[in-house]
Design goal:
This protein is an alpha+beta fold. It contains nine helices and five strands; from the N terminus they run αααββαβααααββα. Strand 4 and strand 5 form a beta hairpin. The longest helix has about 30 residues. The relative contact order is 0.18.
Length: about 280
């Protein structure tokens, strides 16, 4: 068994459970019920209490949450969602800080793409390199911000922790380097990686032992929990979901949208319109 699933520290089961409950809460409950649930999640993340004793209990609990809502988001298709405005927020509400957000590209770019993603989501796997290419070809005009929504169970939670642990070693460049490697090596749909996590980290220039220790200690759990809470507040129900921000205007697309679609959204935001962009 690979090290990525050999999580002997009991606290690791508390953190994924907290993240699971937070994720499941925004999927299964209406907005007016989310507040208390998410407060409970934040409390559990903060206190890291071991609420389950083995992975079987963890998976069973997650399955109960999904079944209760009659949903199967792990196999949802992009065509099931349509776009909507992200809401009447001020621009500063979306502007991320390089010190605590995962930014790729120019932090002072005029456009931000905020991506709510899951390392085990097959559509996210396809979308991620497209976004990197879009940023790389933008001459500093577009930046990407990655947000975690790990809805595909234990594998996606561990991979989210690992990417954040890479950032612990080498900042945002480290995060995106390992994130790219994870997406390239994941089997998707909760099946995990084809290469043991410590080996994958070492191959990409990280201290594999240190990274596994970070994952086992679940040090980035509060960051991941905060991303999930933010997604819940926006009523995001599918991965990937993308917010495009320009000045005081923004638009949200739930489901995968290609680079051409994102550029069209940007043009409409510049013109002052409200994009009505459907997912691919």
């Amino acid at each position: 068994m690979s090290k990525m699933f050999s999580l002997k520290n009991a606290a690791i089961f508390a953190i994924p459970l907290a993240i699971l409950i937070g994720t499941a809460s925004y999927i299964l409950y209406s907005v007016h019920k989310q507040g208390k649930i998410l407060d409970d999640v934040a409390f559990m993340v903060q206190n890291s209490r071991p609420l389950v004793t083995d992975r079987e209990q963890l998976n069973e609990l997650f399955s109960q949450y999904i079944s209760a809502g009659g949903l199967d988001l792990a196999h949802a298709t992009p065509n099931q969602s349509t776009s909507k405005r992200a809401g009447a927020k001020n621009a500063e509400d979306y502007i991320p800080s390089p010190s605590d957000e995962r930014i790729y590209g120019n932090p002072n770019a005029q456009f931000y793409i905020i991506e709510y993603s899951d390392f085990e989501c097959p559509y996210c796997k396809e979308h991620f390199p497209q976004l990197l290419d879009l940023v790389d070809s933008s001459s500093g005009n577009i930046a990407l911000v990655f947000k975690h929504v790990p809805v595909h169970g234990q594998a996606s939670q561990v991979e989210s922790l690992a990417a954040e642990c890479a950032a612990e070693q080498n900042g945002n460049p480290g995060f995106y380097k390992l994130a790219r490697a994870i997406f390239e090596n994941t089997q998707s749909d909760g099946r995990g990686l084809t290469t043991p996590l410590d080996v994958l980290a070492t191959r990409n220039g990280f201290d594999g032992k240190r990274l596994i220790e970070c994952v086992n200690a679940a040090r980035p759990a509060q960051k991941i929990g905060a991303d999930v809470r933010e997604a819940a507040g926006l009523n995001i129900q599918q991965t990937p979901s993308t917010i495009v921000v320009h000045g005081d205007r923004s638009a949200l697309v739930q489901g995968m949208v290609n680079g051409t679609g994102i550029m069209q959204m940007m043009a409409q935001l510049v013109d002052g319109g409200t994009p009505e962009q459907k997912s691919k």
